Amino acid sequence: MPDVIRFSIVVPMKNEAGNIAALVDGIGAACAPLGPFELIVVNDGSTDGTEAAALSLAATRPWLRVLRHERSGGQSAAVHSGVRAARGPVIATLDGDGQNPPDQLPLLLAPLLAADAAPGLALVAGQRQGRQDTLSKRLASRLANALRARVLRDGTRDTGCGLKAFRREAYLDLPFFNHQHRYLPALFARDGWQIAHVDVTHRPRQAGISNYNNLQRALVGIHDLIGVAWLLRRRKTVRPVELTTPTTGPAPDAQGDMA
C-alpha cells in the first residue's frame, strides 16, 4: 500500500527551463526528511523547454507530478490548479524562478505538520529578508505592501513572497480571482483563520527573466485592492451549529424518499 501523502508542494512555472532542475532537486532534498510528499509543477503556458525538462525529471522522481495550462493563466491560476490536484492536506508554495530557497520550506510547514498544530492556524506566510531584486522592484514592492496593509490591515509585511504553507481545504474555500496569491493573509483572516509569519531568505535569479514588471503590477494592483476590500466587507458573518446527528444511511431522493 503506498504511503499517504503528508503534504504537497505546488510550484507555478512559466519559461523557467534554466531553473527547474536545481529547484526540483532542492525541494526534494529539503522535503524528504519530513515524510511522504509530492511536488506538483504547473507549467503555465511556457514557450521554452520548461515542460520537457519537467517531464524528464519526473521520469526518475516518482514524487514529481507535472500539470499543464495550454495558455498562461497567471501565477494565482497555476497555484489554484496545483492545489486542486494535490493529495496532501497541507500545501506549500514557492516561486518557480528559484529566488525562494527550498531549504526554507520546513520552516513554513512545521507549524501545520506538528502533532500539536493549532486547529485554527491555516496559513504560514513567508516574509523575505535581504531581497535580492533590483532597487526599482524593491521600492515598488515596498510601496504596494504599505498601501495594501493600510487598506486591508492584514498584518503582513510582504504578501508578494511566494513561500507560503496552508491547509488545502481552507484555501479551496476562499474566493478565487486572478492575482489572489497576493492577498491570501487577508482572505484567510476574512474566514476566521489564524495566520503566522516566518522570516525567510531570498536569492538572486540564476537564469531567465521575470514575467512581470512594475507597471503591470501597479495597474492590476489598484483594481485588485479595491475588489479585495469589497470582499472583506461582504464576508459571511454567521456559522451554523448542527442540532441533529448525521446518519450514515442513504440520502433521500429529490422527493424526500429514501433512494
From TrEMBL:
InterPro entries in the cross-refs: Glyco_trans_2-like, Glycosyltransferase_2, Nucleotide-diphossugar_trans
This protein's UniProt keywords: Cell membrane, Glycosyltransferase, Lipopolysaccharide biosynthesis, Membrane, Transferase, Transmembrane, Transmembrane helix
Start and end residues of each Glycosyltransferase 2-like domain: 8-171
Pfam family for this entry, one: Glycos_transf_2
Keyword Cell membrane (UniProt): yes
PANTHER family linked to this entry: UNDECAPRENYL-PHOSPHATE 4-DEOXY-4-FORMAMIDO-L-ARABINOSE TRANSFERASE (PTHR48090:SF3), UNDECAPRENYL-PHOSPHATE 4-DEOXY-4-FORMAMIDO-L-ARABINOSE TRANSFERASE-RELATED (PTHR48090)
Full protein name: Glycosyltransferase family 2 protein
Source organism: Halodurantibacterium flavum
